[in-house]
């Protein structure tokens, strides 16, 4: 990175689901940036979008648009990220990429600032990866408990929102909801399937349904989302052998991923200690008084920065296992916020 | 039970969510009954409802209405079941009760015909209990795998439909869906909470949300639904020490409960063998070709009798653990169908 003057930031994918939230965050947070450049596909070139209270013209992503960039926040589809991240890095930018392309690479750190900020310092390819939004829904809370008790295994079931699939996911749910509202659908085999027009990015209707298949298929019946959560959790925690079982399920929620977590530790756990750890963990809000209606839900976590954690229980048969439920905004901590936190780290490594 | 002639069947709660499905089942199945008597609260007395192709007048539940009944199918709220089940039993009826009142009692068998039909023969109080709809979504598939490999522990996360809360749950979801359809709600903290009028039986909005709290609270942070699934699974399988961890979550689905299951066995498992076991198990349909879009969803399972099982995977870190996903209609196998199966067993113990 150049020294002297405030660093130039580029936002790639500024018009997308994540990019839009990111522009909002850049307007709210302490302003450490010089120029902020908004990039997207040629389709969007010339549009004006607000950031830091000003209207900024969107540029088409090309070589010229990447000149003089210090930090480049990539929120592009996988193919575009694969093509352009090495170009931006070669031009001297630190690339912070939220696509799936680089997360598993050995010479690309995968960073969650609350857990492994140090890893962002070593970036042989000039690229830092930000995890999948489902990993980010749980990892900060799990990491805090791991520091205290030593994690031994995880069994995870997810409740993933449609904006995790970008604008297309949101459009699909909204269209399908309009098609089923005011009907008595959802009571006969396949009636929802017949009524909704267009499944969008999903292999089954998402309105009035849950879809236990997120991402693409892999061998042995696992999905890419399930394998990603497993591999990323291991990499971020630095535990390459950690047993992790994941079932990823899409639910008819607009924004806010949730995860039911069964975590086993090397040591005995207690609920009061878990409450203390979670309440003290940066980036976590404890929300656990179910008798008073306090538990995390996506409708409450959406639009907020932290991971919401609650429903904390000790397994009844295993004093070393804890059950809990977490919710996080998949567009904020799940993507835009985590990448901007990494950018701030990189810009002023302190 | 009287001998000679076809037995008289009473349906208590004939106007409810379960009762309505039950009338449909009685019309479809082999007809082993003499008179079928429909009972509900005095509010419904005099209404005419169809069963076996005839319109039958609903009677108010009282002592007289229970005279001469051989088998009484109870689908009433807990308090009414607690009051009337002993009365019906004292009058000589075999009571088959789907409420939560008697399931945990030592002298009341808890029966799932595919698994423990024999238990229905010993009924010291004249009462047979039918399990909770969430237990019934998973127990037939889990029981089949247990017979083959010997179950060692379960970690369960549920995706429960609103009709599990009866007519009031369905009305609440439909009203809230009408309130959010055509809006851009679900993107700001609490916007759904502010927009929906009336939470019905739920402690948080159910449209565009998931609610990780089903049933009532108990000590230690568990809910009654979670404790019920645990206790009932142990009782039905005859494994009073089985480790079971459950997280119960309500989702915006009308009918069809789903469960993500992590099951550990005494023996090594394989996916092909699991497929064989599930495909051969009575009451289970195997639906597991995710590459071709085949996996169980509530939208497909609703209105059908069997448990749909799919997404079968062997845990990557544990050759003795299997992950899978099941869906079942909570009003059919989850309540009406299981109770009518028990009734048929009791009427002709064969
Ligand atoms: N959504 C989430 O919760 C989430 C969470 C974590 C990570 N991610 C990752 O973040 C990335 C963006 O996701 P999203 O949900 O924001 O997707 P999205 O809503 O579909 O937005 C895609 C963005 O990429 C731009 N784009 C597409 N093709 C391009 C190209 N060839 N050249 C330049 N720009 C191009 C689009 O610009 P136009 O408007 O001009 O088409 C748009 O700004 C993906 O890699 C995704 O996996 C998403
Ligand atoms: N819904 C499920 O998925 C499910 C699954 C398993 C078990 N169960 C159990 O099945 C039972 C019924 O559930 P549901 O969902 O069908 O409830 P529901 O839709 O609310 O129906 C309740 C039924 O009980 C009748 N009733 C209420 N109070 C009564 C009284 N004091 N005397 C006589 N009848 C009375 C109602 O008659 P009126 O119409 O006259 O009010 C109605 O027919 C509950 O115990 C529930 O826990 C339900």
List the helices and strands and how they pair.
The structure is a homodimer of 350-residue chains.
Chain A: E1 9-12, H1 17-28, E2 36-40, E3 48-51, E4 54-57, E5 59-60, E6 71-74, H2 78-90, E7 94-97, H3 113-116, E8 127-129, H4 133-149, E9 151-159, H5 167-180, H6 191-195, H7 224-237, E10 244-247, E11 257-265, H8 271-280, E12 284-286, H9 298-301, E13 307-314, E14 321-328, H10 332-347
Parallel strand pairs in A: 1-2, 1-6, 2-5, 6-7, 7-8, 9-10, 12-13
Antiparallel strand pairs in A: 3-4, 9-11, 11-14, 13-14
Helix pairs in contact in A: 1-10, 4-7, 4-10
Could you walk me through the main structural features you see in this protein, from its secondary elements to its overall organization?
The structure is a homodimer of 350-residue chains. Chain A has 350 residues and is α/β, with parallel strands linked by helices. Chain A folds into two domains: 9-131 and 335-347, NAD(P)-binding Rossmann-like Domain (Rossmann fold, 3-Layer(aba) Sandwich); 135-330, 2-Layer Sandwich (Dihydrodipicolinate Reductase, domain 2). The first copy, chain A, has ten helices and 14 strands. In chain A, strand 7 (94-97), helix 3 and strand 8 form a beta-alpha-beta unit. At the A-B interface, strand 9, helix 5, helix 6, strand 10 and strand 11 of A face strand 9, helix 5, helix 6, strand 10 and strand 11 of B. Bound molecules: NADP nicotinamide-adenine-dinucleotide phosphate (2 copies). Chains A, B: Homodimer. Chains A, B: Keywords: Amino-acid biosynthesis, Diaminopimelate biosynthesis, Lysine biosynthesis, Methionine biosynthesis, NADP, Oxidoreductase, Threonine biosynthesis. Chains A, B: The active site is at 133 (acyl-thioester intermediate), 257 (proton acceptor). Chains A, B: One of its GO terms (molecular function) is aspartate-semialdehyde dehydrogenase activity.
């Amino acid at each position: 990175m150049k020294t002297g003057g405030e660093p130039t930031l580029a936002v790639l994918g500024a018009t997308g689901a994540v990019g839009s939230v990111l522009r909002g965050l850049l307007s709210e947070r302490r302003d450490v940036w010089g120029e902020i450049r908004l990039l997207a596909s040629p389709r969007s070139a010339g549009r004006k979008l607000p950031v830091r209270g000003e209207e900024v013209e969107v540029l088409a992503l090309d070589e010229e648009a990447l000149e003089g960039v210090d930090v480049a926040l990539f929120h592009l589809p996988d193919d575009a990220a694969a093509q352009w991240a090495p170009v931006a890095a070669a031009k001297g930018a630190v690339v912070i990429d939220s696509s799936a392309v680089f997360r598993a690479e050995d010479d690309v750190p995968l960073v969650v600032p609350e857990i492994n900020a140090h890893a962002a310092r070593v970036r042989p390819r000039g690229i830092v990866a930000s995890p999948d939004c489902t990993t980010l829904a749980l990892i900060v809370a799990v990491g805090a408990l791991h520091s205290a008790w030593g994690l031994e295994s995880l069994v995870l079931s997810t409740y993933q929102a449609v904006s995790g699939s970008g604008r297309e996911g949101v459009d699909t749910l909204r269209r399908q909801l309009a098609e089923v509202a005011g009907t008595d659908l959802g009571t006969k085999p396949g009636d929802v399937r017949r009524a909704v027009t267009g499944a969008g990015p999903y292999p089954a209707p998402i309105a009035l349904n849950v879809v236990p298949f997120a991402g693409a298929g892999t061998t042995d019946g696992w999905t890419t989302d399930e394998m990603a959560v497993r591999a990323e959790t291991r990499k971020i925690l630095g535990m390459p052998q950690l047993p992790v079982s994941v079932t990823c399920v899409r639910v008819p929620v607009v924004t806010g991923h949730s995860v039911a977590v069964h975590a086993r530790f090397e040591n005995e756990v207690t609920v009061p200690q878990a409450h203390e750890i979670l309440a003290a963990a940066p980036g976590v809000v404890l929300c656990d008084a179910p008798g008073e209606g306090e538990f995390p839900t996506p409708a409450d976590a959406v639009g907020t920065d932290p991971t919401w954690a609650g429903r904390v229980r000790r397994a009844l048969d295993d004093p070393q296992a804890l059950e809990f439920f977490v919710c996080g905004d998949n567009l904020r901590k799940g993507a835009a916020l985590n990448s901007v936190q990494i950018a701030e780290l990189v810009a002023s490594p302190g």
